[in-house]
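Entry for the shared binder. Reason: the reviewer on the internal report wants the predicted structure included alongside the sequence.
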Amino acid sequence: MNSRSILLGITILFSMSFPEVFADNIEIDTFDTAKGPLSVYFPGHGTLMFDVDGYIIHVDPVASEADYKNLPKADLVLITHEHFDHLDGRAVRAVSSAGTVIIANSASAPTLAGSIVMENGDSREVDGIVVYAVPAYNTTRGRTKYHPEGRDNGYILDMDGFRVYIAGDTENIPEMNAIKDIDIAFLPVNQPYTMTSEQAAAAAEIIKPKVLYPYHYWNTDVERIETALSGRGIDVRIRSME
């Protein structure tokens, strides 16, 4: 490992532990990467925004979570699936400009003009960022109707070796065993639609991200994840994602 890799690892682990606050009380955390500073914005629930040294990525933008007049236009939009709390055509149009690239699962694409369909297992390079579409689905009996296998996407973003995993709506599925070298992971905690706190902790132990953000939760005791992972070498950060 060279000195730059060591420095990057230290920076990841000791980057901002307490969030800044942006417009509309949106919290922000910042990390150093080989591509430049990465700022992570937390509008709420399943909606995220990344600023990679001025390159803007919106994930599942939804108008009820943010006033997009106050947020920058997207270079890249990622849509995990077509549920109302993830796919909002008005919000996508509000953050889009002529050069915006929109990536979506096949069920979302018909409502998003000009979008690029990615299926589970696909990968694509967009402006120097490698995007991987990975499975996201329910496995528990009685829940598979919410997110059936093969329909929805999670995404991994590889930014010159700095890897971000956005799980989408999923439980802790076997395919997570193949997800490696993750710097930041976003795992959903919203029973019965996604994971319980215990499932999210189990998923984190499989993936072993350096930093874990529980997201997509309502009335959930996400602190239980932090307790379950205490001493496991995973920096669990709780942000306001109700």
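Summary line for the report: Residues 1-18 have pLDDT under 50 and may be disordered.
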